[in-house]
Amino acid sequence: VQSEGCLREDDYLSDVSVVSLNLDKLREVHMTAARILKQKPPGVTTIGSEATIADAVELLAKHNIGALVVSDDKKMIAGIISERDIVRGLGERGSALLRCLVRDCMTSEVITCSPSSATRNLLSRMTELRLRHLSVVDDNAQLVGMVSIGDVVKLRLDDLATEVEALHGYITSG
After folding, report:
1. Residue 116 contacts by C-beta under 8 Å, 6 or more apart in sequence?
2. Of 72, 75, 100, 151, which has the most beta carbons under 10 Å away?
3. Rounded to two decimals, what is the model's pTM?
4. For residue 129, what are the contacts with CB-CB under 8 A and spacing of at least 6?
5. Residues 62-91: pLDDT tens digits?
6. Can you name the residues that pair with 143 across neighbouring β-strands?
7. In what order do the strands lie in the sheet with 79-82?
8. Opening angle at CA 148, ends 147 and 153, nearest 5
C-alpha cells in the first residue's frame, strides 16, 4: 500500500529515465560543430601554399593559434599546417625550414567534419586520430570554420555544468 503523496522507487526511476532521455535528446540537437563555431569569432586564419614557413610561424604567433588552414582561395582546403608539422620539419631540416614553402611541410590529407557533426563524434575522432584541429566544411567541401580539441572540451564542460545545475534544480524542487 502506498501512502498518498509518496513516490515508489519505480516512479522515481521512471522520472530519472525521462530526465536522462530528455538530456540525451538535447545533446543530439545542440552539441554540434556549428554550435562551437557560433561561439567563436567569425572566420578562419588561412595561409597560401606558396607562403614560407616563416610566414606561417608569424601568423600562428600573431593569432595565438596552433594551426592554419592552407588555402589559396580561402574556400577550398589544400592542407593544414600545425605547430606539430613545423616542429617536425625543424627537427628534420633545421632552421632552413623557415625558408621552405608551406606546401612542402603541410599535411595534405585533411580530416574534416560538417557543421552538423555531433561533438561527441568530433571528440572521439580527434582522440583516436590524435588531432587537435578539424576543419569544418559545407556540402561543397568549402571551408566554413575550424574547431580545436579545446573548443570541443570547453563546450562539453559547459554543457555538463548546465546538466548538473538542471538536475540539482530537479532534485531540490521536490
Report:
1. 32, 33, 34
2. 151
3. 0.74
4. 111
5. 999 999 999 999 999 999 999 999 999 999
6. 137
7. 46-47, 67-70, 79-82
8. 110
